[in-house]
Amino acid sequence: GVRQKLLGYESFLNDNPEFSSKTVLIQIALTTAEHNELQVQVMDVVNRINSKFGTIEHQPVVFFHKDIPYSHYLALLSTADAMVITSLRDGMNLTSHEYVLCQREKKSPLVLSEFVGTYGAFNGGALGVNPMDTRAIAQAIKDALVMGADEKSARWELLHRQVLTNSATSFVSSFISDIESAHAESKSPNGGRNYSSAQQGLGNGPPPPAAAA
Fold this sequence. Notes:
The chain is mainly α. 55% of the residues lie in helices and 8% in strands. It contains eight helices and five strands; from the N terminus they run αβαβαβαββαααα. Strands 3-4-5 form a three-stranded parallel β-sheet, sandwiched between helices. A two-stranded parallel ribbon has the order 1-2. Strand 1, helix 2 and strand 2 form a beta-alpha-beta unit. The longest helix has 20 residues. The radius of gyration is 25 Å and the shape is elongated.
């Protein structure tokens, strides 16, 4: 989803050129097996944005081709004016959780792909986008940057509550509780009678119709 993010940011700058000298998109490409493929896919967009909107003093996109220290990563999350996550497919996405926890002071908005597993759990706190919709990403970036303090705080409170509630510990506890409840239900007399009557109904019913040859 990195290319989709960059295309959305490019669309945002095209629609709002006054932001070209006021914003910087910082993207970190982790040194994984997919690193080289990712670099080829996104560098054309990075170069196009910086060529069109950049100056000698300012580049709208800073693209890191290396890992950074974890302390630097947390510092970026803490000082960001918005976080944009446009994954095409993802599970819990811990980056979004880390961002929320790092934003206790600023309470900056989160733009989150609707294809991320935790999107629904965030209960409206994030600005949801379809990562394939470039115009929607552009609009969400603008909405995040011009959002008022009251809305920022209200959205962050929703996000923070969900991050604390939907932790790994709470998930395991809930999962174990559901298993124990299901096990207890299967052992209850009522559950056994329902199963027996269903079996008897299957055995005593009329024979199935013969299939035509």
